[in-house]
Amino acid sequence: MTGVPASAAGGSGAKPVRGGKLGTAAVNQASLWNIANILTMVRLLLVPGFVLLLFHNGGYDPVWRSFAWAAFAVAMITDLFDGHLARAYNLVTDFGKIADPIADKAIMGAALVSLSVLGDLPWWITGVILARELGITLMRFWVIRHAVIPASRGGKLKTLAQGTAAGMYVLVLTGPLATLRFWMMMVAVVLTVVTGLDYVRQAVVLRRRSLAAERAAVGRTAEALNEAAGSPGAGVADAGAVVGPSAGASDASGAPGASGAGASGPAVRVSGGSTPVEPTVGARDGADAER
Q: How far apart are CA 291 and CA 273, in angstroms?
């Protein structure tokens, strides 16, 4: 119940690389039938089996509750293994993304609700834990467009504490062990609330940062468009270019294109940008004087 989908699927053809990063090719080639997804399916099937075993013979038979505990323990262990396989072999499927978190919450929710129905666990504990899990799941969908909230170390400790405490409540314990399981459940409740509040804080911060980055990007884009709109249009001469009525004109030597002093119009120098156009009269005369 870390909140991060971990189930994966085996590749078809290419040999998986242990410890590598997930890539588009691995996702596209992933097959549904592989060990990680099979473990997830087993965990889903164990949910109704666990409930049947727990309620068998009235729900208070120590032997059948031991069988129920075994099913619960197998379900919790498979959650660890399918996640490890998914991370180690870079294999993932859409089925795994959806089924893994559902299986995690289904087995824990079934245990808490069943124990409360039997009167072994107070309903307020079940309500707090289930409300937190449902709320965090919905919150992840709320911020998924902006960022992905990773599973924290506190979240993993919360999952371990919940599984241990729920497993102890499934067993028929008396004396000091019954007291121990109560305090273990209190630790699980505290971790559930604290990590839930921390996830909410992370979600708010990540969403604000993402929105601020989006607004900044929109602002930079608008500024760039405004600068582009205010730049000189196409066809305007570059800075330093001399534009004059020299086409077809000839100077005293008869060379075409040369405009001497007293030509029909002064040469014009375009400086570009927003600088006004300034006439430069006598530029030809100055060059002749230097020669």
A: 33
Exposed/middle/buried for 192, CB within 10 Å: 0-12, 13-18, 19+? buried
For the whole model, what pTM was predicted? 0.62
34-82 pLDDT, tens digit each: 888 888 899 999 999 999 999 998 899 999 999 999 999 999 988 877 7
Token representation of residue 125: 């504990």
Phi/psi of residue 101, nearest 5 degrees: -65, -30
What is the overall mean pLDDT for the chain? 73
Phi/psi of residue 256, each to 5°?
-70, 150
- Residue identified by tokens 């929710």 is 109
Rg for the chain, CA atoms, rounded: 37
Listed residue (118, 100, 142, 139) closest to 53, CA to CA: 118
**Strand, helix or coil for residue 241:** strand
Cβ-contact 181, 173 below 8 angstroms: yes
- The single-letter DSSP state of residue 59 is G
Burial of 223 (0-12, 13-18, 19+ CB in 10 A): exposed
Q: Rounded to an integer, what is the distance from CA 259 to the centroid of its chain?
A: 68
CA 100 to CA 266: how far, in whole Å?
81
Instruction: Give residues with Cβ within 8 angstroms of 289, minimum separation 6.
Output: none
> Percent helix, strand and coil across the chain, each rounded to 5?
65, 5, 35
Residue with token string 């164990």: 46
